[in-house]
Amino acid sequence: MSSDKNKRLDDIVAQSKKYQTEREGTYRERALKLYPWVCGRCSREFTNINLKELTVHHRDHNHDNNPSDGSNWELLCIYCHDNEHSRYIEQVRYGSSGSENTKNTSSHNPFSGLADLLK
Questions:
Q1: Does residue 61 have a pLDDT over 50?
Q2: How far, in Å, CA of 56 to CA of 26, rounded?
Q3: Are 37 and 3 a contacting pair, CB within 8 Å?
Q4: The pTM is what?
């Protein structure tokens, strides 16, 4: 019985990977034709040799939102793409990027006694 469950799970994973590959192939090819091969964040340039490191990022994080004009896409290198998704997960979990809350709630001033020390 365990092997039946494993087979079903393997089939589901295989179908999911196939669907993802087909979906990515379609919009990835279109995005690479629309946009210059440059990371939209760090401005790293790509050629045919390292093109596999350039990814298509969905601005609204919905991988099924693929308008033909490419308005929901941006090309990002794998590092910037990973960073973008990490920031998004943090925003979903904590409600903001974190830096805004820290900026508003910080009360420590490391230079508060500097004037007295310089006298």
A1: yes
A2: 11
A3: no
A4: 0.59
Structure token digits, residue 54: 């350039």
Residues found in the chain: 119
2-98: which CATH topology? His-Me finger endonuclease fold (3.40.1800)
Q: What are the CA-CA distances from residue 98 to residues 80, 93, 110 (Å)?
A: 18, 10, 21
Q: What is the DSSP letter of 110?
A: T
**98 Ramachandran zone, left/alpha/beta (phi>0; psi -120 to 50):** left
Q: What is the pLDDT of residues 12-32, one digit of tens each?
A: 988 988 887 776 668 888 899
Collapsed DSSP state (helix, strand, coil) of residue 99: helix
Q: What are the sequence ranges of the domains in the chain?
A: 2-98
